[in-house]
Design a protein that fits this description.
The protein is of the alpha/beta class. The protein has 17 helices and 15 strands. It has helices spanning 35-44, 74-82, 114-124, 139-150, 153-200, 206-218, 220-236, 241-253, 262-289, 294-314, 319-385, 434-437, 440-457, 474-488, 500-503, 530-542, 548-559; strands at 2-10, 13-19, 24-29, 62-68, 91-97, 103-107, 110-112, 125-129, 392-404, 407-416, 432-433, 462-466, 493-496, 508-517, 520-527. A hairpin with a 5-residue loop joins strand 5 and strand 6 (103-107).
Length: 560
């Protein structure tokens, strides 16, 4: 509920404050006095765009502040929690436009962005202006009406979650299949390359070791000849090196006691003799293992030829790199197999979610279809009440095979403003979509009738009507007033009107006026007492100087 509205420096309003009633609040005043300006100011704290021309005095900022009683509405508490805003007994929403035309928004004195203010505004106020009746022509609004009457809020939310999940899984499936198709185009070639490397079966460092072994085998005769010569000189010549070293050791040994360094020299010569004997043994061992083997050389050449060919093909220079390429190809081939399994799994889940979504959609559709007849009867009865006795509304709901974001229905409200008495209402050509045949005045009254029905099923926020009664008078205006009065028994209603029949139904009647302060025209507003209300309504009936009959009529309107 909107308890208080404060406006400062906005268009032709210098400063005013309004305390609203919790029921039916009516705002009247002459054309141009500023009634719709007040609604425009209210629109700013609901998140509408600010205009630099809003500032009257360019030397001070514009401030619009609304104080709301949120009651126990869980959606508002949830909004405040998720946006980390203070939860207080009162909800204060403020909009400021600075002198340099920058806009700032606050909720409970905490700065917020415009989208947050707009989101909260939808929870607080249903602002209905004349041109807002166009939403009645939109299928989204029409669907919301039937769902509200059917009490589908939780069911639709559950369906939307399932539908979103289904769409996401479907997208994932498409992406995986596209990825699979791309991989499959490469799979045959990858498998050929992998098989080629797998068949080659190179072990770690094999090519490098084969190169070294081939060099050795190719030079086997030269290596063995050199080894034999070394062995001959060490042990088998007429004066073998080992034997000569032994003789030298004997010669020096007889003098070792005569010089302190000779024993060390002898020890080193003995170590050299032992080392030469070991070397001779190694030469014999190596020589025994070196054989020229033309078959092995041929096998190594074939192996190296294959290795060099594969290295050139894959642009690498080592056995390790070839093995790494083989491993990468194996991973790619495995990925294709894994992808097949992933696709089967996600397709199974997608089918399951699709079935669940279809069941929910069918349940929602059945609820909508069930509401059509009572909805049409109630709306048409209200249309007659507001001065449109020949107007008829039809709700056309079709069931489709394909699911959409809100079920499996297409919904269209059809309208005929001139159904002749006794004519068959379903006769082809009589009814047409609202957007094509309803006038502005008809849309306004039709919207009022529909919202009054919806309000009986769901808790709407504050309802604000800005001259929704345009184009009606007399009994029709009185019936509109009755409908608004009935709405106000369940929620707060604020209505700007020119109709005395509606003003007479008010629980609180505010009068907007212009006055000249200094050299400026300013808008003011005051809450009327009973006597002032009688005079104001009488003036609405008969002019600036109301007649006794008009005063009596006004008094009767207020009393009734």
């Amino acid at each position: 509920m909107l308890t208080r509205l404060f406006i400062q420096n906005y268009v032709i309003i210098d400063e005013l404050e309004i305390d609203f009633s919790s029921r039916l609040n009516v705002i009247t005043g002459e054309t141009g006095a500023g009634k719709s300006i007040i609604v425009g100011a209210l629109g700013l704290i609901l998140g509408e765009r600010a205009d630099a021309t809003s500032l009257v005095n360019k030397e001070k900022k514009c401030v619009i502040e609304g104080v709301f009683d949120p009651g126990e509405k869980e959606t508002i508490s949830h909004f405040l929690k998720i946006n980390e805003l203070d939860i207080l007994e009162e909800l204060i929403v403020r909009r400021e436009i600075t002198v340099n035309c920058k806009s700032r928004a606050f909720i409970n004195d905490t700065p917020v962005n415009l989208s947050q203010m707009q989101e909260l505004g939808l929870l607080l106020v249903d602002l209905h202006r004349q041109f807002y009746t166009l939403e009645l022509c939109e299928s989204g609004f029409q669907r919301q009406v039937l769902d509200a009457l059917a009490g589908h809020a939780e069911l639709v939310q559950e369906y939307r979650e399932k539908y979103s999940r289904w769409k996401m899984l479907s997208k994932e499936t498409e992406d995986l299949k596209a990825q699979q198709l791309k991989l499959e185009k490469e799979t045959d070639y990858n498998r050929f390359q992998f098989n080629e490397l797998e068949e080659a079966g190179f072990r770690e460092n094999e090519i490098e070791e084969a190169e070294a072994e081939l060099k050795m085998l190719s030079n086997a005769e030269g290596i063995r000849s050199a080894l034999d010569k070394a062995l001959f000189e060490l042990k088998e010549s007429e004066t073998p090196l080992i034997q000569q070293l032994k003789v030298l050791m004997n010669q020096l040994g007889s003098y070792s006691s005569y010089h302190p360094e000779l024993p060390e020299i002898l020890q080193r010569m003995q170590s050299a003799q032992v080392e030469l004997q070991d070397i001779a043994g190694d030469i014999i061992r190596i020589s025994n293992h070196i054989h020229y083997d033309p078959e092995k050389i041929e096998r190594l050449n074939e192996r190296l030829s294959l290795g060099y060919k594969l290295q050139k093909k894959h642009g690498v220079k080592s056995t390790a790199e070839l093995i790494e390429i083989k491993n990468q190809l194996e991973e790619k081939l495995q990925a294709v197999q894994n992808l097949d399994e992933a696709i089967r799994k996600i397709e199974k889940e997608t089918a399951l979610v699709s079935v669940e979504a279809e069941k929910l959609a069918s349940k929602i559709s059945a609820g909508r279809l069930k509401e059509i007849k009572p909805f049409e009867e109630k709306v048409n009865k209200l249309l007659a009440q507001v001065g449109m006795p020949n107007a008829r509304l039809k709700a056309e709901v079709q069931v489709q095979k394909e699911l959409n974001a809100f079920g499996n229905n297409t919904i269209e409200f059809l309208f005929n403003a001139n159904v002749t008495k006794g004519a068959k209402e379903d006769k082809a050509g009589q009814f047409a979509p609202i957007r094509k045949v309803a006038s502005g005045g008809e849309l306004s009254r039709l919207m009022l009738c529909i919202k009054s029905l919806v309000a009986q099923s769901v808790h709407l926020p504050v309802l604000i009507f800005d001259e929704i009664d345009s184009g009606i008078s007399g009994e029709a205006a009185r019936q509109v007033g009755i409908i608004m009065k009935d709405l106000a028994a369940r929620m707060q209603v604020i209505c700007i009107t020119h109709q005395p029949q509606i003003a007479g139904k008010a629980d609180a009647h505010y009068f907007v006026y212009k006055e000249i302060v200094g050299k400026k025209v300013q808008t003011g507003i005051r809450l009327l007492n009973d006597d002032e209300r009688i005079i104001t309504i009488a003036q609405m009936l008969s002019g600036e100087k109301p007649t006794a009959a008009a005063l009596a009529n006004a008094r009767e309107m207020i009393m009734n």
